[in-house]
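Issue: ligand-bound run for adenosine-5'-[phenylalaninyl-phosphate] - logging full I/O for the record.

Environment: standard queue, default settings, no custom constraints.

Inputs:
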Amino acid sequence: MSEKMNEIRQAFSEKLRNALNAQALEEIRIEYLGKKGAVTGLMKTMKDLSNEEKKSFGQQVNVLKNEITEAIAKKVEQIKQKELEIEINSMPEFDVSAPPVLERGSYHPITLVQRECERIFSSMGFNIEDYSEIVTDYECFEAVNIPKHHPARDMQDTYYLTNGQLLKSHTSAAQNAIYRKYRKALVEEGKPIKAIFPGRCFRNEATDACHENTFFQMEGVMVDRNISISNLIFFMKTMLSEVFQKDIKVRLRPGFFPFVEPGFELDISCLICGGEGCPSCKQSGWLELCPCGMIHPEVLRAGGIDPEEYTGFAFGLGMTRLAMMKYGIKDIRDLNSGNLKSLSQFTAE
Ligand code: FA5
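Outputs:
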């Protein structure tokens, strides 16, 4: 028997020495360790031996099996190493100090404005939340007090999927999820809900210099005991003076949104024409930038918050329009145009 084992050992060593690639090694592995392999065959001969012989024979076969397994693994490593060396040596040499072929990219103006707003609001203790672009009818409308057939739906026609879901027409679609996420901390630990959630919105509407079918908003909510309109005005003013770093003329006028009561439109004096009137502000001298208001009790209730105990404000900042005003972009459509000549002039500050 031990003669047979030596024969196997020698033949294996010879084959292993001549194997040049992973495929050849796999074939050798099958030849010796596979189901019908030489080592497996040795095991099968055990049945004719006495119990005493079986024990020592079995040990010897195991030693052989381990030797073969280890030798194959070692050779696999050697072959891999050799292949890697060949690959490295065949790579073209390049000069790491050569100037880059591609020019450095730049940030999109909306990215810059979004980061700026996030920085400002997180410095005031707001959490930054992300939310999906595809939402349900409930999230986008019903949960924010716009039931089916409510006329307010006409203002926000959007794109529907065949499964009934839709592309969100406003960031308010995330309000319900935010209230549900934070209400436990509000009620049990007394932590106010303070969150902003920027996102892309979609509306099926005609485009012009200040309307796009795809644009960005940033929603913000704050809920606690005794939140009032003065809190809302404070945060809006702080945000605008930080973003523009100068005094901006603003006006607050009543506005209707089913999810706030009372509701306001916050307009800023058009910075493109200085308030004279131009296509960017539809000749009015003012630009609707940030509707806002006190969260409607029904909306709080839908989010699991008791409106008898808590109040809050919400705003929906038009981030695309903010980017236009901040960077003097006259036509909103330039922002989605992919026109690198005009977009690449913006860099991170
Ligand atoms: C809303 O979308 C409300 N969800 C905002 C809100 C939130 C109100 C919370 C109260 C409380 P509105 O449809 O007005 O409201 O849009 C908000 C802002 O998004 C507008 O002031 C404008 O700056 C921007 N916006 C709206 N439609 C477009 C569009 N087609 N293109 C570019 N910006 C738009």
